[in-house]
Structures are given as structure tokens and as C-alpha cells.
Specification:
185 residues; mainly alpha; Arc Repressor Mutant, subunit A; 2 domains; three-stranded antiparallel beta sheet; 3 strands; 9% strand
């Protein structure tokens, strides 16, 4: 009996052998319709995140198109407004340039006083004898006048006989010179 008991004990831990086939080698039978349904569901499941992303991108593009259209319209309005402002500014500047400046006589107006006429003649003789131009400061010293009086005197001079230009090398100083080829009467 001990042999029988020991054989039974030894056979207790062992599993009975059956014809077991692993799932990877097991044969499944599907119809074409079932296979198509499985493939269709798998493709839908794989494509769904991509379709969701495409929809969100399409919404974003549509919103940006609307924003670009609004900005373009605003830009066109701004450009038109700026162009009108520039035109109005030019008109205002033209009116200001045509308006006479108070206290300044027109350049074609001849000098009125004897003192002014004698000062212009003195400057003209000085420039003739010198043979070249003179700075405003030199003319002021010659006439014993202040700089503002010199500026006023120059504004009354005949621009056909005199010319004014900046001193070469020092643009702050101005030179007064007789024009060449003019009769100095």
C-alpha cells in the first residue's frame, strides 16, 4: 500500500496532459464582413485623434482669417486717414508760407530810411574794395550795429545784388557777398 500511496502522492502535483493550443497558434475563422468591421473600427479609432486635431486647426485658421481681414480693413482705413492728414498738413503749410510775417518787410521793398540806405551803401563799398565776401560780424563792426540790426539790414538788401551763404568749415557763420556780373549802382 505504501507503493500505491506514494504513486498517488507523486501524481498529485502533476497536471494531466491535454491538447492545449496557445492563442497565438490557434486558428480563428472570420468572415470577410467581420474582418472589414474589425479593420474599420481600428482605423476609426486610430484616425479619431487626427480628425479632432484637424477640426481644431480648421477652426483656428478660420479665426485667424477673420482677424486678418479685420486688420487689413483697419490698416486701409488708417492709411487713408494718414494720407488725408498729410494732405491737410500740406495745405496748412502752404497757407502759412503765403501769409506775410509781421515785422519782416518783403525782399523787393526798397529800404525806407536814410540811415538804412547809407548802411547798405557802406557795406556795398566795403565789399567792392575787399573783393570778396565778409562775415556778418565784420559788417556789424564796420557799421557799429548789433546782430539783430544786421539781420534786419540784410533782409532789406536787394537779393539781386547780394548773396548770403554759410562759411565753409563753420556753418554757424554767414557770409555776405556781392553777386558777380551785377551792376553795383
Amino acid at each position: 500500500m505504501s507503493e500505491i500511496a506514494s504513486a498517488k502522492i507523486n501524481s498529485f502535483g502533476k497536471s494531466p496532459k491535454a491538447d492545449f493550443v496557445s492563442p497565438s497558434t490557434q486558428l480563428i475563422t472570420l468572415t470577410i464582413g467581420q474582418l472589414q468591421d474589425i479593420i474599420t473600427q481600428a482605423v476609426k479609432k486610430a484616425n479619431q485623434p487626427l480628425q479632432d486635431r484637424i477640426e481644431s486647426l480648421e477652426k483656428m485658421v478660420a479665426a485667424q482669417d477673420a482677424k486678418i481681414a479685420a486688420l487689413t480693413s483697419t490698416q486701409e482705413q488708417d492709411v487713408n486717414r494718414i494720407c488725408l492728414d498729410i494732405a491737410y498738413d500740406r495745405q496748412r503749410l502752404a497757407r502759412l508760407e503765403q501769409r506775410p510775417v509781421p515785422g519782416v518787410t518783403a525782399p523787393t521793398t526798397p529800404p525806407q530810411g536814410e540811415k538804412t540806405i547809407s548802411r547798405i551803401a557802406k557795406v556795398k563799398d566795403f565789399l567792392k574794395t575787399r573783393g570778396s565776401g565778409a562775415t556778418f560780424q565784420e559788417c556789424e563792426r564796420l557799421l557799429s550795429i548789433l546782430p539783430n540790426q544786421m539781420t534786419r539790414l540784410v533782409s532789406m538788401m536787394d537779393k539781386r545784388s547780394f548773396e548770403i551763404f554759410p562759411r565753409p568749415g563753420d556753418g554757424r557763420q554767414r557770409i555776405l557777398r556781392l553777386k558777380a556780373g551785377r551792376s553795383f549802382t
